[in-house]
Amino acid sequence: MKLLELYILRRVAQMFLTALLPVLAIIWTTQVLARINLVTDSGQSIGSFATLATLILPTIIPIVMPFALVIGITQTLTAMNNDSELAVIDAAGASRSIITRPIIAFAVGLSLLSFLIANLIEPQVRVAARHMIAAAYADLLSSVIEEKSFRRVEDGLYVQISERQSGRVLKGLFVADSRDPAFELIYYAREGAVDETGTALIMRDGEVHRKAPDGNVSVVRFDSYSFDLSDLTQTRGQARMRSTDRGLPFLLNPDPTDPDVKAHPGEYRAELHRRLADWSFPLALGLISLVVAGDARSHREARLHPMVSALTIALLLRWLSFYSANQAENNAAFVPAIYAAPMLSGGLAAMALLRNKKTHIPRPLRNLISRVQTLIEKRLPRNGPQPNGGDS
Question: Helix 97-116 and helix 46-82: axis angle, to 10°?
Answer without folding.
Answer: 170
